[in-house]
Amino acid sequence: MSNADTRLAREFHEYTKHSYLSVRQNPHWLDFDNQPHPYKIYPDAPELDLPRDFDQPAADTFEAISGTAPPGGQLDLPKLARTLYFTYGITRTKVYGHRRFDFRACAGAGALYPTELYVVARHVEGMAPGLYHFNPGDFKLRRLREGDLGEPLVTATGGDPAVAVAAAVIVETAIFWRSTWKYRDRAYRYVYWDAGMVTANLLAVATSEGLGARVITAFLDQAVDRLLGIDGQREGTLCLVVLGGDAPPTTSMADLTALPHRATPLSAEEVDYPALHRVHRACFLGGEQEVQSLRGAAAAVGNPPAKGRVLTLRIPSPLHGPALGATIIRRGSTRIFGRVGIGLSGFSVILDRASRGIPMDVFARDGDSTLDLYVIVNDVEELPAGAYYYRRGEGTLELLKEGEFRADAGHLGLGQALPGDAAACVFFLADLKRVLSALGNRGYRIAQLEAGIMGGKMYLAAFAQEIGATGLTFYDDDVITFFSPHASGKEPIFLMAFGIPKSRVMSINR
Ligand SMILES: Cc1cc2nc3c(=O)[nH]c(=O)nc-3n(C[C@H](O)[C@H](O)[C@H](O)COP(=O)(O)O)c2cc1C
Q1: Phi, psi of 448, deg, nearest 5
Q2: Distance, CA 420 to ligand 1 centroid (Å)?
Q3: Which of 139, 188, 268, 363 could form a disulfide with 368 if both were Cys (CB 3.0 to 4.6 A apart)?
Q4: What is the number of H-type helices and E-type strands within the chain?
Q5: Alpha carbon nearest to ligand 1 atom 20, residue
Q6: Cα separation values, 95 from 21, 71, 101, 130, Å
């Protein structure tokens, strides 16, 4: 199996496509008695309480999601606590029947939260260097290894210069079973969308804290898994986020013995999903050279010449938003949209601010991306209802076909009411042939992760303007048919819907 043999990612993508028929011919019932626990617990690892008396991240939401702090920046324990809380902490709790559900700072498909966060602390004031696991359930860190682990991380990332001076590196993993429990093999896509949501918050909070941050997607999987003490099969590393700088260069070689701590099982039994494990391994990178060759390798290709009418988006200037912390606390996926419109400037800000580029190792320049955005407008002031292509970098929407497509939007979003009732839907598409030829199978993961990050930024941009939002899944091939011929040859990666929550429409009308 090699990263270059991209038939594996393509096969997986085909195998996990949803269609109207596939979801009906292959139904799946959820076994609630065997649902994996949402928190990973290391019962015997030393605990470190995170301070809770922190202020909310104060930066303007739009600046925080669309900018980045310059590389570097100092980190201390209260800053780290605030960063972890507003990235993935519990912001709401609901009780349904006898069960309590904790909701997090960012969205997560099915509220299953497969992402786990580990902190490799290198130069964090108030905290000894080492590897820590973050448990959002009790808001504690647990120390799994002691000492500066910079050297194995620098090696695993092919000598990444940001890792070499990082104050801390947040390693994001997925416990696949948490997500396969509901989504089966297709969960491999969901875990990256979910990690993208986490990463979007993390990048925004880091920017607000004045911490340079960078997403690393090219690394030696087995080396990072070994560092964390995970098996790479039931739990695998998805990406790393470098935070801050100023750490002195590592001199010591870490001695990575087996982890002396074990986590408690998440459920009575686990169901295996072999296609997911196969594709995960097919994306592994084998050596330092392969890691280095991916750096900056995903260049954007630019927009094709416009054939349809081009409409200009409207970004208010100056643009001011609420503080990031207030936006994150307010965020929550919209469950029912009222069939009312949103303003052009609100929708323009969502598209523009979320798609200004992500500081990621595979992107050399601002605006590089693996994705193209397509839109169904149901009800956005000043825009004719219809299907559009977002001409990124130009601040325009190209009208592909005009018409009322609420029924199509509802169908494409797996027959759910949300996209049909929404004011607008944004479909994230990738030219997989191009992405896989530039990045190998790894490009498949990166496209899913990028979609999650952009989607997470869109959640924040929407909620900063009191517009509701939700992530959605979709009928793959029908999406491409709908947007063709413009989209032919591409594949859908993710879907987001925006509008006014029905509860708000009803309270306004009362
Ligand atoms: C990747 C992703 C996919 C989602 N897909 C759907 C979906 O198909 N239908 C739906 O109603 N909600 C969907 N959601 C919304 C989640 O159910 C919601 O985020 C989760 O219940 C947590 O609630 P919160 O976002 O309000 O914190 C999705 C969210 C994400 C992040």
Answers
A1: -65, -45
A2: 16
A3: 363
A4: 19, 19
A5: 111
A6: 34, 42, 6, 36
Pocket probe mutation, ligand 1, options 472, 494, 496, 498, max atoms within 8 Å of Cβ:
472
Q: Domain residues of the chain, as ranges?
A: 31-250+270-294, 310-509
Q: Is 182 helix (H, G, I), strand (E, B) or coil?
A: helix
**Cβ contact 401:479 at 8 Å:** no
Q: In angstroms, rounded to a whole number, what is the distance separating the alpha carbons of residues 122 and 131? A: 9
User: Which residues does 510 contact at the CB level (< 8 Å), separation at least 6?
Assistant: none
Residue nearest to atom 31 of ligand 1 (CA): 108
Q: Are 227 and 153 in contact (CB under 8 A)?
A: yes
Which amino acid belongs to residue 257?
A: T
Three-state SS string across 80-101, please? HHHHHHHHHCEEEEEEECCEEE
User: 440 CB contacts (<8 Å, ≥6 apart)?
Assistant: 2, 3, 4, 6, 283, 294
Q: What is the mean pLDDT of each run of 10 residues along the chain (510 residues)?
A: 92 97 93 95 96 93 94 95 98 91 97 98 96 98 95 94 95 98 98 98 97 97 96 97 88 78 94 96 94 94 95 96 98 97 98 96 93 98 98 97 98 98 98 97 98 98 98 98 98 98 78
Looking at ligand 1, which residue's alpha carbon is closest to its atom 10? Answer: 472
**Ligand 1 neighbourhood includes 3 CB (under 6 angstroms):** no
Compute the distance between CA of residue 114 and CA of residue 131 in angstroms, rounded to an integer.
Answer: 20
Output Rg (C-alpha) for the chain, integer angstroms: 22
CATH architecture of 310-509: 3-Layer(aba) Sandwich (3.40)
Q: How buried is 343 (Cβ within 10 angstroms: 0-12 exposed, 13-18 middle, 19+ buried)?
A: middle
Residues 201, 327, 335: CA angle, nearest 5 degrees: 90
**Whose CA is closest to 447, among 406, 381, 494?**
494
CATH code for the part of the protein at 31-250+270-294: 3.40.109.10
Q: Do domains 31-250+270-294 and 310-509 have the same CATH topology?
A: yes
Residue 480 to residue 507: CA distance in whole angstroms: 38
Q: Is the CB of 416 under 6 A from ligand 1?
A: yes
Looking at this protein, which amino acid is placed at residue 353?
A: R
Burial class (CB in 10 A: 0-12, 13-18, 19+), 271: exposed
Angle of CA points 452, 7, 438, to nearest 5°: 60
Give, to the nearest 10 degrees, the angle between helix 442-463 and helix 344-354.
Answer: 140
| Phi and psi angles of residue 468, each rounded to the nearest 5 degrees, phi first | -85, 160
Q: How far apart are the CA of 449 and the centre of ligand 1, in A?
A: 16
pLDDT at 509: 61
Token duo for residue 307? 């054939």
